[in-house]
Specification:
With 227 residues, the protein is mainly alpha-helical. It is built from 9 helices and no strands. Helix 3 crosses helix 6 and helix 5 packs across helix 6. The structure holds heme C. Heme C (HEC) binds next to helix 4 and helix 5.
Length: 227
């Protein structure tokens, strides 16, 4: 029993040495040697997936599409109106509607004013409150020598052009009923004191802003919803 006890540590040491030598030799190359680079013909691991399109609300997408379509249709109508104006109206009202002699302007700051120009015969006493009033007048009296000779939609197209030329922006094609919603009420340009006009503009803008701010918390949203 004693002899065994003495021997055991020795064999253990030898075994440990042997084992240590064996262990040192084997794992070392495995851990130290750098991994060979991956074969170059391997598919590139880093192909980034296409960024996912932010999912758009279909209703929003549809509204956007419709909006673009309306704008395009309006532009086509305006272009048609421009051609028709050149054909049927420009000989008297000028190539750009600027007016000529006795023929009043239909484009510019003196055009389509609320009150008829001085000396107007056909239009005497008729106000242009809305675009529909212009349409009614033009359909009845223009072209001067051939009143009512164009198709209704041609008059509407000419009006669409004329309104646009006067700074009205159309987000959809003009229609005869729609014309009634376009307020004109244009006043003659102030011949003096342009500053007065500017201050008016500022006031109007300020008011608009204030209104929006007041609305900020959606105070009037419920009212809108009720409608
Ligand atoms: C032969 C010349 C002539 C042609 C062509 C003509 N007009 Fe006129 N237009 C006039 C005259 C003149 C007046 C003024 C009528 C009046 O009130 O006495 C007028 C008035 C108008 C007015 C009202 C202007 C205002 O401020 O009172 C509009 C709008 C108008 N024309 C649009 C047209 C359009 C659109 C066409 C083409 C479809 C056209 N005109 C073709 C001669 C013409």
């Amino acid at each position: 029993m004693k002899a065994r006890i003495r021997i055991l540590p020795q064999t253990f040491v030898v075994a440990a040495l042997l084992a240590g030598a064996a262990c040192d030799k084997n794992p070392e190359p495995a851990t130290v040697s750098p991994e060979p680079p991956p074969p170059t013909d391997a598919p590139p691991a880093a192909e980034p997936p296409p960024p996912a399109e932010p999912a758009e609300d279909p209703a929003v997408a549809e509204a956007k599409r419709k909006e673009a379509e309306n704008k395009q249709a309006a532009d086509a109508q305006i272009a048609q109106g421009k051609d028709l104006f050149a054909q049927h109206c420009a000989s008297c009202h000028g190539e750009n509607g600027e007016g000529k002699g006795k023929h009043p302007p239909v484009v510019g700051e003196k055009a389509l004013l609320l009150d008829a120009p001085k000396g107007a015969k056909k239009r005497k006493g008729q106000q242009f409150q809305t675009a529909a009033d212009v349409l009614t007048f033009v359909q009845k009296h223009m072209p001067l020598k051939k009143p009512g000779s164009l198709k209704p939609e041609e008059y509407v197209a000419i009006l669409a052009f004329d309104l646009t030329a006067n700074g009205v922006s159309l987000v959809e094609p003009l229609s005869a009923p729609g014309a009634a919603n376009i307020q004109l009420g244009r006043q003659p340009p102030p011949s003096t004191e342009p500053a007065a006009d500017a201050s008016k503009g500022d006031k109007a803008e300020g008011k608009g802003k204030k209104k929006k701010e007041d609305k900020a918390e959606g105070a009037d949203k419920p009212a809108e919803d009720k409608k």
